[in-house]
């Protein structure tokens, strides 16, 4: 993969749809050296649903940027690097995009291989309705939600602030590639970090709710967050080589 210049742009909309997971259910999903980042007794996984606009190499004019709808299934993780330092971020077992350029560039020019998917998104006055169907037929998401000032009492997090503090450090993501021994790495630098509560009215996820990888009762929806109009940069980080037998 080519060395990626700094990519800049705008996060027009970012939804973090979060599930609490029995950590033992992730043993077959997380490769070494990752281990779940826990909140209490729970591992935390979810889906990042993100609309990007004006995406371009830093220094290029805004009009040269592209826009896209994207989805990333992610698991909050910790690991120890080669220097013995504790790190945290997200492991991404799957990425999907509605953008053909993103699909073609992913894993070749831009870190992270992206499956091609059809996105149907309605976002108006704080109400969001979203449907995603991957072209390969293996992934579906349906969601209806609205922005709400309240934070759900059913969450394993005690407050919006506690949830925000958990997710903010997870800037580095490592994504699965066709090479079973290599993970592509990328770091998101948001110029500001501000999340709000998103109240979910209905939610369907083939990955979390219908996957044979999660035993019944091992994964439950917890809460959702939304970010809007965040300037940001993407930075490539060195790919991670997985140990033999992983």
Report Rg: 17 Å
Shape: globular
- What is the annotated CATH architecture? Beta Barrel
Tell me about the largest β-sheet.
13 strands, mixed
Q: Quick one: how many beta strands?
A: 13
Question: What is the CATH topology descriptor?
Answer: Acetoacetate decarboxylase-like
CATH level 1 name: Mainly Beta
Tell me about this structure.
The protein has 246 residues and is mainly β. Helix content is 7%, strand content 55%. Strands 1, 2, 3, 4, 5, 6, 7, 8, 9, 10, 11, 12 and 13 form a 13-stranded mixed beta sheet that branches.
Brief characterization of the structure:
The protein is mainly beta and 246 residues long.
Structure characteristics:
Acetoacetate decarboxylase-like; mainly beta; 13-stranded mixed β-sheet
Provide the fold topology.
Elements: E1 7-21, E2 35-36, E3 38-39, E4 42-57, E5 66-80, E6 86-97, H1 100-105, E7 115-124, E8 127-134, E9 140-147, H2 160-167, E10 172-176, E11 182-190, E12 196-205, H3 206-209, E13 219-241
């Amino acid at each position: 993969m080519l060395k990626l210049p700094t990519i800049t742009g705008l996060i027009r909309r970012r939804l973090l749809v979060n599930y609490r997971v029995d950590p033992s259910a992730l043993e077959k999903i997380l490769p070494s050296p990752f281990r779940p980042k826990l909140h209490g007794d729970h591992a935390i996984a979810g889906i990042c649903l993100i609309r990007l606009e004006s995406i371009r190499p830093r220094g290029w004019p805004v009009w040269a940027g592209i826009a896209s709808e994207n989805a990333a299934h992610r698991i909050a993780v910790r690991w120890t690097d080669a220097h013995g330092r504790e790190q945290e971020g997200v492991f991404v077992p799957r990425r999907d995009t509605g953008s053909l350029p993103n699909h073609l560039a992913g894993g070749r020019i831009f870190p992270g291989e992206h499956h091609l998917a059809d996105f149907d998104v309605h976002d108006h006055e704080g109400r969001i309705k979203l449907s995603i169907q991957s072209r390969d037929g293996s992934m579906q998401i349906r969601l209806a939600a609205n922005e709400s000032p309240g934070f759900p009492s059913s969450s394993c997090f005690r407050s919006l602030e506690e949830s925000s503090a958990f997710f903010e450090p997870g800037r580095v993501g490592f994504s699965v590639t066709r090479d079973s021994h290599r993970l592509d790495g990328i770091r998101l630098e948001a110029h500001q970090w501000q999340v709000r509560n998103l109240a979910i009215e209905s939610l369907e996820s083939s990955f979390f709710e219908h996957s044979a990888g999660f035993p019944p009762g091992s994964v439950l929806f917890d809460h959702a967050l939304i970010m809007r109009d965040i300037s940001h940069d993407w930075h490539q980080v060195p790919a991670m080589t997985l140990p033999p037998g992983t």
